[in-house]
Write a sequence for this structure.
């Protein structure tokens, strides 16, 4: 058996871990155009000079110990399904018995005039982060415009303030983290960002990037022009399906996979930001580009590739704003789309510095927000994951001392006494 | 996952015996301190317990990392600070941890805790008193509500 | 200062806290079952409501940094030998409640403890002491009716006489009656296990026998009291002996009352009453107004159990205890149990606890004397109860004439009791005299069974050492052997009642 993995981030490492649970022997090959296995969620930290070793997600030792051959700095350009081989940009062929496509996401770049100018950056690769950092230094940048107030946009903006650079965040919606966070959460995050000195321009968008070859300013939809020594585009990522397309597999918004992470093409599996993932909270399949999900999908793919049949539990959208001094976490559906949802709030942010909110549908928790005090919220995440009936302890969900004693006794028996904590034990009840 | 019994010993709470005295918490904080003194551990070293005593009426229990057979914290760790050894014990390297709180967000038991101070931000959790040989919480429990036993 | 009622303003105990040592673990807050300790989030401090403190010392014991000391309130009433703080507080309580003052445990007044005035003998030169670690030493005791004389077969060796069922004790100490309700199942379980392991007996008290304890049948004494709780044929049969409870040292002449709020499902089932109903034991047995009536009950029980169970009768040590004991012997009981003035209880009016009954030492001597005089001593065993603190008390009681001793308070103390006298509240912080599930789980039967076993073992060692020093190798040989006792500091009359010589004579 010969395993090949394209991509070298969370899903790939998850896949290696999964394969090695079952098959300790067969060779694994990892192909990546990047040169190291770094942690994608950490790239913005480059701006604040995080030590290089902290960026490394898995070092060479990991790959050695797991008997993984690395083909780095080379891009997989095509999958030849007939001969079961991956074609590299060097025209070299890498044959596979089982292949995992974990090519990740690519930043969405809106079709704005001038967006191709030098000085416009995205933030999904380590190389672009370094390039941005260097550009700021080279230009002695004083003012930067960030387009989009999602997690990456806010993080970049925050770190730019650490560097003393003036930042304006342009956001189409009227609040930060629009889709991911509820209104109160957005308000709190915005105030924390403003305390740091970040300025926001809401309900607006960049219509044109101005400057000769290099960015000098942007023109907003409102007509206003604002100075920008550099522009960061952070309005989301889309599944990178370029390689998958060459294999002729079924692709919607992202690669379509089965519960076992198989694509529509035999012997090819897919995991990570490039696929459409099952969202537990609404039962829909969609791209959810998140690190923990990618790892888990890779893990499940790895098990199945190695012959152990295992179904993916599905993913929960989870977010953590790791850069803010105040921790901000959320999971699942935080803004109920209609009145069939029940919302329980414990807002003590102004008095005691924390905010908690739970969103319930049909007596099942489907989402929560935790700001300030975040200890033990994983229990809530699991309530979403296992779809446990919360009707008996609804009000307790948002209290800081919510714990396992609030959960049904059978759950504690199963998990604590019987120790049923294997992957399959976490399915919905 | 492979169905084989691992040779891991971990701490099992027995809620029928827990009297919520919090000795486990204090013992935990103490043995993880430099001073090995409970007052200094809390007040000077600002340490926090890795075991959590939960109380709701007559039900109480002490809860610490379960060293899950499938640890979600390990899946979610973006820094590689969380690793699983061959026995199945889940280790969290506080120096390597970058404080992204993903483990806090996904741990079904709420056993990975955030440590948030000006000078330090990292997650922390039960390490089974690795360098001590025997979990301090089990030793401290006055009512046999914690047992150190082979994985079930 | 806001106005406070006197019993709130003048509280007897205070919780001293070393705030530096307090790490806010809040263990004390959780452990306090009397609402005397709380955490204030705004101040980030643990604080006390001293007026609620009962000096149970649970918080003190459980503070991991030794930051707590419960002390007597240093602010006292004006010193007055008559108008003591207790006298004043009792008035404060009664003027507000209009009720008798309920309390628990045993008499706490300085009534002379005669055990402390009795001294044991030892051997020197003329008669050798025995080393109990090198030579056999017998503590085995049989409780039950012994025959008047022994008849032998023609061979002159084999005994022809048959005697009724006896209880065989490896140590002359039994666990006394404490009902399920007044204490919880955990302590009963612990006593049952320790008794079984060591070779002695425990007593159900008047609350019936929980089904989970039926496996301890062979070391269980089941009680039949005036409320007849939990009594049916199966109950009587699931026992080693049956005890009719007439009275109790801590509350002679009155019955008992387990309030309905304490009657949970387990208690209700065991007592055979509805959940939440008051369990009232009347002061008298309504079918016993004479020795003849008592005899009827004794024989009814014997009849029901096929004469296989010895039947005990328990009374409080009152003024004419000797005559009553003789009556009980005549009525056909196999053992008389006498409970002295220091005997404990789960609830009693304070006035009765502290002022009714006589010390057990005098009662043992008086009853033993009287039974001998009437030629009845072999017909009944004499079991003493009420305030026995250690092995020496036990041995002195046996020397005075008892066959065995019941211990109750000692068992509670071995389970953690600090004698705070709050049993009647059902809020025992040590999880002993409470059935609140949160509190009751503080008493782990595994641990307490071990403690109780250790205690019995230690007492057995003690008794053997003392016997050895006296040159005696069997507990039987000290029974009623008052010549091996001397007294000090007692009046002639007291010596006469006890049947002992003063030291030096």
């Amino acid at each position: 058996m010969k395993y090949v993995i394209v991509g070298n981030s969370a899903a790939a490492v998850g896949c290696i871990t999964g394969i090695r649970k079952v098959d300790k022997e067969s060779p694994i090959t990892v192909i990546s155009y990047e040169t190291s296995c770094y942690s994608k969620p950490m790239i913005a930290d480059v701006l604040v000079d995080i030590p290089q070793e902290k960026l490394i997600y898995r070092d060479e030792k990991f790959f050695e110990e797991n008997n993984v051959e690395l083909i780095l700095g080379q891009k997989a350009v095509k999958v030849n399904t007939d001969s079961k081989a991956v074609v590299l940009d060097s025209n070299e062929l890498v044959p596979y018995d089982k292949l995992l496509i974990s090519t990740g996401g690519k930043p969405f770049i809106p079709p704005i005039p001038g967006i191709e100018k030098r000085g416009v950056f995205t933030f999904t690769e380590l190389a672009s982060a370094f390039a941005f950092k260097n550009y700021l230094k080279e230009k002695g940048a004083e003012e930067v415009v960030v387009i989009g107030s999602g997690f990456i946009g806010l993080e970049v903006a925050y770190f730019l303030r650490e560097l003393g650079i003036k930042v304006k965040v342009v956001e189409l919606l009227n609040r930060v983290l629009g889709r991911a966070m509820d209104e109160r959460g957005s308000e709190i995050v915005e105030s924390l960002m403003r305390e740091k000195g970040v300025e926001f321009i809401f309900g607006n968008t960049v219509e044109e990037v101005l400057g000769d070859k290099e960015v000098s300013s942007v023109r907003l939809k409102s007509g206003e022009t604002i100075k920008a020594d550099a522009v960061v585009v952070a309005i989301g990522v889309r599944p990178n399906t370029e390689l998958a397309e060459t294999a002729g597999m079924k692709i919607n918004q992202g690669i379509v996979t089965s519960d076992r992470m198989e694509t529509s093409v035999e012997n090819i599996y897919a995991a990570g930001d490039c696929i459409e993932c099952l969202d537990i909270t609404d039962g829909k399949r969609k791209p959810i580009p998140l690190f923990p999900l990618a790892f888990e999908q890779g893990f499940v793919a790895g098990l199945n590739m190695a012959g152990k049949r295992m179904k993916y539990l599905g993913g929960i959208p989870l977010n953590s704003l790791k850069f803010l001094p105040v921790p901000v976490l959320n999971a699942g559906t935080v803004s109920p789309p209609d009145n069939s949802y029940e919302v329980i709030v414990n807002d003590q942010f102004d008095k005691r510095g924390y905010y908690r909110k739970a969103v319930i549908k049909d007596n099942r928790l489907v989402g929560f927000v935790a700001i300030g005090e975040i200890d033990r919220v994983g229990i809530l995440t699991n309530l979403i994951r296992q779809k446990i009936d919360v009707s008996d302890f609804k009000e307790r969900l948002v209290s800081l001392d919510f714990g396992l004693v609030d959960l049904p006794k059978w759950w504690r028996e199963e998990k604590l006494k019987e120790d049923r904590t294997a992957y399959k034990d976490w399915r919905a009840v | 996952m492979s169905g084989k019994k691992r040779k891991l010993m971990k701490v099992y709470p027995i809620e029928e015996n827990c009297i919520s005295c919090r000795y486990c918490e204090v013992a935990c904080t103490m043995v993880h301190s430099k001073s090995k003194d409970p007052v200094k551990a809390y007040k000077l070293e600002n340490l926090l317990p890795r075991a959590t005593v939960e109380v709701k009426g007559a039900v109480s229990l002490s809860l610490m990392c379960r060293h899950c057979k499938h640890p979600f914290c390990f899946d979610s760790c973006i820094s590689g600070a969380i690793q699983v050894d061959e026995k199945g014990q889940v280790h969290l390297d506080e120096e390597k941890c970058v404080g992204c709180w993903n483990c806090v967000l996904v741990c079904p038991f709420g056993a990975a805790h955030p440590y948030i101070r000006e000078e330090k931000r990292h997650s922390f959790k039960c390490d089974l008193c690795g360098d001590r040989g025997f979990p301090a919480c089990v030793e401290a429990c006055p009512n046999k509500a914690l047992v150190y036993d082979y994985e079930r | 200062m806001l106005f406070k009622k006197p019993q709130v303003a003048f509280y007897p105990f205070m919780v001293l806290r070393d705030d530096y040592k307090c790490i806010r673990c809040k263990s004390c807050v959780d452990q306090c079952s009397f609402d005397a300790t709380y955490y204030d989030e705004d101040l980030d401090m643990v604080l006390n409501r001293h007026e609620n403190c009962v000096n149970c010392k649970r918080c003190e014991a459980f503070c991991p940094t030794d930051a707590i000391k419960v002390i007597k309130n240093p602010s006292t009433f004006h010193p007055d030998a008559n108008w003591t703080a207790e006298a004043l507080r009792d008035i404060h309580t009664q003027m507000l409640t209009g009720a008798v003052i309920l309390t628990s445990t045993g008499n706490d007044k300085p009534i002379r403890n005669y055990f402390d005035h009795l001294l044991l003998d030892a051997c020197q030169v003329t008669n050798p002491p025995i080393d109990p670690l090198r030579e056999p030493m017998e503590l085995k005791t049989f409780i039950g009716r012994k025959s008047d004389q022994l008849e032998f077969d023609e061979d002159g060796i084999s005994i022809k006489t048959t005697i009724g069922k006896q209880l065989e004790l490896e140590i002359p100490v039994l666990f006394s009656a404490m009902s399920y309700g007044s204490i919880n199942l955990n302590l009963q379980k612990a006593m049952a296990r320790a008794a079984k392991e060591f070779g002695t007996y425990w007593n159900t008290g008047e609350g019936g026998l929980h089904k989970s304890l039926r496996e301890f049948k062979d070391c269980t004494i089941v009680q039949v009291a005036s409320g007849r709780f939990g009594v049916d044929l199966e109950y009587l049969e699931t026992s080693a002996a049956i005890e009719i409870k007439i009275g109790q040292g801590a509350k002679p002449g009155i019955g008992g009352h387990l309030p309905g709020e304490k009657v949970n499902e387990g208690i209700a089932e065991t007592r055979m009453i509805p959940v939440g109903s008051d369990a009232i034991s009347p002061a008298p047995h309504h079918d016993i107004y004479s020795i003849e009536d008592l005899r009827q009950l004794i024989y009814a029980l014997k009849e029901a159990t096929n004469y296989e169970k010895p039947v005990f009768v328990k009374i409080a040590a009152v003024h004419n205890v000797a005559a009553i004991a003789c009556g009980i012997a005549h009525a056909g009981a196999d053992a008389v149990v006498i409970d002295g003035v220091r005997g404990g209880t789960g609830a009693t009016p304070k006035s009765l606890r502290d002022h009714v009954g006589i010390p057990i030492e005098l009662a043992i001597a008086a009853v033993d004397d009287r039974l001998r005089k009437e030629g009845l001593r072999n017909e009944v065993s004499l079991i003493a109860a009420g305030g026995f603190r250690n092995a020496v008390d036990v041995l002195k009681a046996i020397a005075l004439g008892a066959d065995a001793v019941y211990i109750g308070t000692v068992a509670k103390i071995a389970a953690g009791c600090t004698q705070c006298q709050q049993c009647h509240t059902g809020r025992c912080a040590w999880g002993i005299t409470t059935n609140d599930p949160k509190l009751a789980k503080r008493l782990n039967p595994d641990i307490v069974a071990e403690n109780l076993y250790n205690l019995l073992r230690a007492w057995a060692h003690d008794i053997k050492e003392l016997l050895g020093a006296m040159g005696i190798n069997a507990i039987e040989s000290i029974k009623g052997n008052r010549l091996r006792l001397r007294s000090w500091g007692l009046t002639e009359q007291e010596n006469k009642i006890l049947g002992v010589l003063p030291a030096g004579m």
